[in-house]
Amino acid sequence: MANKKVEKFKKYFNRNRRVSIQEIVREPTAGGVIYRRNKSGEVEILLIQDAKNRWTIPKGHIEPGETAQQTAKREIGEEAGLKDVKVIGWLGKINFRYRRIDKLVLMTTQVYLVKALGDTNAIQKEEWMNDIRWFSFIDALDAIEYEDIEKLILLAMKKIRQEKL
């Protein structure tokens, strides 16, 4: 009887064995820390909530023939519905990796500081998103779950204050 339990135990653990990594894939992406000033003149940051309920910034893959800055603007339009935006400057890049079955994906995201212009309340989320919302600077820092993005939001606020944007 003890042998049957051991065999059942072995079967349970062996079935979860991962496929070994066969390929390394590089995925260049770009996005933006988008801000606006509300009626009181306070800075607000736009965040999207992904399918896993994590708050982050709009970003996406760089298409062939596109610059990172063009990608950031396009993705902000697609993911947030904001077409009237101004890229203020480059904030930095984020590197992270994840596994996609038998591939190791190395993603590099170029992040820009972007000012939302026009009707900034006309935000629209894409179907795959759980939510999209303007946050006060402090609430955006609390909501963000990615440390690297949090650092870029802090850098964005420093730039907004120093340059009186």
TrEMBL record:
Residues 25-157 form the Nudix hydrolase domain. CDD domains: NUDIX_Ap6A_hydrolase. It is an enzyme of class 3 (hydrolase). It comes from the Bacteria. Keywords: Hydrolase. SUPFAM superfamilies: Nudix. Belongs to the Nudix hydrolase family. This is Mutator protein MutT4. It comes from Candidatus Nanogingivalis gingivitcus. The gene is mutT4.
